[in-house]
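Q: What would this chain look like folded?
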Amino acid sequence: MPKRTDQPDPKTTALLEDGTWNPSPEGIRDSKFQQGEFFDPRDLLQVRYEMLRRVSVDHVSVTDAAAEYGVSRPTYYQARAGFDAGGVAGLVPKKRGPRGPHKVQGEVLAFVEQQFVPGEPVRARELAKLISEEFSVDVHPRTIERALGKKTARRAPASKSHTPQREQL
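A: My prediction, written as structure tokens:
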């Protein structure tokens, strides 16, 4: 009887960490991905590259290749544009969403830094309210903490006034 392990497959772990895990490997109908171990339908990078190769080398239509690899035609064209711009590295999916604290820059960041007292807890909720009043910009308290580089900052309870409370001896 084979030994059962609770450890995940190392390749699966690597694909997930690299962001190249194919979320729908069952949609791939290319026979190469059904037969052996070399072509892995879970490897999004390999799947996209092979899809592009089928169109450019094997002269399969974009519509047929997209259907064979379980993607839409716009997805094919996005993969093609990424490959043309960056080679194989251009096929790696980009992270979604903003690339940093885009609301906390310039004047807002200077204001936050002016309000921050080193050695004291970040009063992010209070700062968020002050920013909203001063600049008419809604900022999440966690965004303020990130902008200050305090990933493990303690959150102090929000006070009713804008003046920091001092500890009593």
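The longest helix spans residues 73-86.
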